[in-house]
Amino acid sequence: HDGETGLPFVLAADLLRTALAVRPGLPGTLPAQTAAMAGRLVPALAAALPAAGAAGSAAPPLDSPMAVTRLYAAIADVLRAAAGPGPDGTGAGIVVVEDLQWADSSSLGLLAYLVRRLADGPLLLVLSWQPEQDGRLRVLRTALAEAESQSAGETIEPGPLGPAAIGTLLGLDGMPAIEVDRLMAETRGLPMLVREYVEAFRAQPLAGSQPSGSELAGRGPADWWPPASVRDLFMTRLQTVSEPARQMLTAAAVLGSDNDADLLRAVSGRGEDEIVEAIDEALGRSLLTEIAPPVPEQAPSYGFPYEALRQTAYESATLARRRLLHGRAADALTRRHERDPATTRAATVAGHLQRAGRDGEAAQWWWRAAGVARELYAHAEAHAHLTRALALGYPELPGRIALAEVLVVLGRYREALAELETAAAIAVEAGPDAHGGPDAPGQADQQAMLTQAGVEHKLADVHHRLGDWDLAEAHLAVVTELVEGTEPGLLARVLADRAVVAYRRGAAGQAAQLGRAALASAQAAADPGATAQALNVLGMLAARAGSVAEAEQYLRDGLAEARRQREPGATVAALNNLARLLAETGRGGEALDAAAEALDLGRELGDQHRVAALHTNLADLLHADGQRDAAMTHLKEAARRFAAVDGGDVPRPEIWTLVEW
Question: Helix or strand or coil: residue 72?
Fold first, then answer.
């Protein structure tokens, strides 16, 4: 045990007492000299001597190396005697010593003696120790190496359990249903941690019964908090390090993972030399792991080997200290972000600012993080960032509009409508004051108008997707009235959308008229993006009217314009409509290529509703081409995505009929 290294022969006495407990009649089987020597450590072993009270004095004093050797030999004889003979006349035993790194030096000498002299005897020695603390075991390790070289011993370095081994363990009767990947992430396969987590879940099932796999999978981070035994173990290890190392580890826990020495120094507040020494100490104790840089010129990074260890180090600090360290981390990472945004995530800075209690700054950084996520089409992540930004006080109007845009792409239309209606109410209530103020009344009025038009346009888009074409047209008519004569580019886009809505409502003539007006307005505004949209709409309308050549020309021109402007949304729309036209005119191979390209690009954009439609269209083309298995795969994916679209409580079959736009 830790703390007993300075007490002589503690381990040796424990071994002798254990031998006596295993074989209570052991003293009567020992030679007098052996019993007398062993009785120095455990007097009960000398109880069978004729003069029991004088047993201690019967043994020679330990005043020379030879006397210590005789004591070692006596202990070895006692262990041999404890091992046999048994009822069958033979004997064998196992001597197990765990956590050998805490053994006293006298007992370590005894174990080295046993290793060298019991190779041919009936005893098997099983010794375990922590490799990062084996500096005290030099003499014993030398004896073990000699035994191994003579094939009388073996050193085993246990490795972590792999997913297959953990899966086998969890498949046994009585084991809880836990996700193997999640358990691997928490424990990295360390057998002790695996056991403790499994036992914790077995002891605390949900609702008083055995939890199902889905219930366990749905548990949040708090439910996976390390069991008490794991926390106690890690806390004990953390308490053994020096003060600089403890402060560095707390800083590393606040930062998370993959931290370099400069960042650890800035956050912990320690000096450069102190940080290097603290890192060396933590690495030596296996409290941190060193991660080689991707290129030799960069500095290595450091992280915790187990998430449970990081959590324990984090919770060991006071709330005040954690807030201080989060503030330091935010400042250091902000400087890095300003130098090179690619090396530091805005969301990381925002998280540290929020935990430091600097809510206003955190809101701005969550907004910035949401913008980065949207650029990468990581819509679910953007939604989470926007929600945090609004909760911390980011301006409501732009925040609600951005949140609605993300919700639309995710197919969560009911929530999107609620956000847009809230934004519309805010815009009306705030008026120009929300945009320019008294110093620029004209500019403020124009900005307020554009904001209102933008909200109305987005409302029209959601209603269009839901099949509420009358409502969509009503909102688009409001936008037309707001921007006509002032914003020809935006007017062109609105007219193109109105053309599609008119087509959906069965007004083909009005749709064609609106489409031509949209193209004229886009060309007058010299707006390539609006031109691409108008050409696509005119191509779609011409195809439905049976004007194949005209439709193909419009669609190919629109596709070329969208590619030139690098507008992926317009590119997907044009490719999808072109694929449908090519299929209708018997050019199945070209249609498949266009549809596959549209799906690949659409998947990257992540618009759930439209991706579902793209899967449907590609499934139809594959089925027509005889590729029925591939068609069924896409059809199933389309059904899954369509079903995930939230249209509210009223059944909306129009959601499933989206094929072109």
Answer: helix
204 — phi, psi (to 5°)? Answer: -130, 65
- Name residues whose C-beta falls within 8 Å of residue 161's C-beta, 6 or more positions apart in sequence: 169, 189, 190, 191, 194
Work out the end-to-end distance of the chain between its first and last CA atoms, rounded to an integer number of angstroms.
73
Query: Taking CA 605 as the corner, what is the angle to CA 600 and CA 609, rounded to the nearest 5 degrees?
Result: 90
- Residue type for 98, please? E
Number of residues written out for the chain: 661
CB-CB contact of 655 with 642 (8 Å) = yes
Q: Is the peptide bond before 60 cis (omega within 30 degrees of 0)?
A: no
Cα separation values, 390 from 208, 384, 450, Å: 39, 10, 22
- Distance, in Å, from the CA atom of 230 to the CA atom of 398, rounded to the nearest integer, reads 46
Residues 198-250: pLDDT tens digits?
888 887 754 333 444 444 444 444 456 788 888 998 998 899 899 999 999 99
Query: CB neighbours of 554 closer than 8 A, spacing ≥ 6?
Result: 535, 536, 538, 539, 542
What φ, ψ does residue 465 adopt, rounded to 5°? -65, -35
- 14 CB-side CA count, 13 A: 17
- Between CA 479 and CA 482 the distance in angstroms is 5
Three-state secondary-structure class, residue 616: helix
Distance (Å, rounded) from C-alpha 225 to C-alpha 237?
18
Other beta carbons within 10 Å of 91: 16
Smallest Cα–Cα separation from 262: which of 251, 253, 246, 254? 251
Cα 628–629–635 angle (5° rounding)?
85
Task: Please give the distance of CA 490 from its chain centroid, rounded to a whole number.
Answer: 41
Tokens at residue 416, please? Answer: 């999107």
Q: Which two tokens stand for residue 477?
A: 């008519």
Q: How far apart are CA 535 and CA 236, in angstroms?
A: 70
Q: Decide the pairing of beta strands 93-97 and 301-303.
A: unpaired
pLDDT in tens, 398-440: 999 999 999 999 999 999 999 999 999 998 887 665 544 444 5
Residue ranges of alpha helices (H) inside 269-345 are 272-284, 307-315, 319-339
Environment class of 623 (CB within 10 Å of its CB; exposed 0-12, middle 13-18, buried 19+): middle
